[in-house]
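Thread title: Can someone regenerate the structure for this chain?

I was given the following input by a collaborator and told the matching structure tokens would be attached. They weren't. Posting the sequence so someone can regenerate them.
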Amino acid sequence: MAEVAPGVSDNGPAPQPGKRHRYLANQVAEYNRQTPQEIKSRDSVDVIADIDLEVFNEFTLLLTQYLADNAPGQENLQRYVRLTATYLIFIARKPLHPPGLLFADGQRLTAHGNTFYCPVKSRQLPGVPSVCQYCVSRDISEMPTGQ
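Best answer:
Regenerated them for you:
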């Protein structure tokens, strides 16, 4: 059965275009508010040895540039995003967007067990660096049929 992140609405069709931005902002904000609480509640981190340092460094450089371009001068926001994104990808092994998030095409980011499937993963432009390439989600086309 598909899972939805706590606080993510799982009812109804995709919001109307005018309300779409507010829907995304609310859903992602709730997911991002929960992440620091999850970090604080962890007793230990037992996956450090599994982190590829080269991939981690590439991600850090790309995210730093993305934040400099999209949130210039907002050091607190940049620090918060770096912390939560790094935790989600490298420690919790969760997607950057909340499971259950409804995209404009009516498809959801879906979780089946510990595997996540994203309907927009395949839309990354080849050769264009994107934070999405580090997300643990797989393309939704890889989801087993009948799920």
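The helical segments are 17-41, 53-70, 75-92.
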